[in-house]
Amino acid sequence: MAIEVKPITDYFAVAPQLGPEHMAGVAEAGFKSVIINRPDQEGGVEQPRSADVIKAALDAGLQIEYQPVVSGSITTDDVAYFQELLSRLPRPILAYCRSGGRCSDLFAAANEQKKDT
User: Fold this and answer.
1) Distance CA 97, CA 38 (A)
2) Chain-centre distance of CA 88, in angstroms?
3) Residues 6-116, CATH architecture
4) Domain range annotation of the chain
5) 49 secondary structure, DSSP code
6) Distant-in-sequence, close-in-space partners of 104: CB < 8 Å, separation ≥ 6
């Protein structure tokens, strides 16, 4: 199954909603880590559960973090934790949410916050 990936830097990319069936392909594409930014049930019962994606990612040899962030309500704590994930997870990192936009916003805010410190 094809994975729609939008590279942001050489070590970070975003994607729209992924499921367990995508994790082997994420690993094959060379990613080392995944960040899930979409809360469970945000998209209803059709949305893959984070627990299922986490299991598949671990089975594929990926590191994975579940950081649910509410769309349109990114907090300073969300940004600080995302920045911490970017600094400690093996690269390259793929983050996903509904469309990839929330992950892109978190990345931009984390980089801006890093400049301010």
Assistant:
1) 4
2) 14
3) Alpha-Beta Complex (3.90)
4) 6-116
5) P
6) 6, 8, 14
With H, G, I as helix, E, B as strand and everything else as coil, classify residue 7. Answer: strand
Residues 17 and 100: their CA atoms lie apart, in Å, by 8
**Amino acid present at 65:** E
Paired strand residues for 33: 63, 93
- Tens digits of per-residue pLDDT, 5-51? 999 999 999 999 999 999 999 999 999 999 999 999 999 999 999 99
pLDDT digits (tens, 9 = 90+) for 39-82: 999 999 999 999 999 999 999 999 999 999 998 899 999 999 99
Q: Which of 27, 21, 6, 20 is nearest to 99 (CA)?
A: 6
Q: What length is written for the chain?
A: 117
**What is the pairing mode between strands 12-15 and 6-7?**
antiparallel
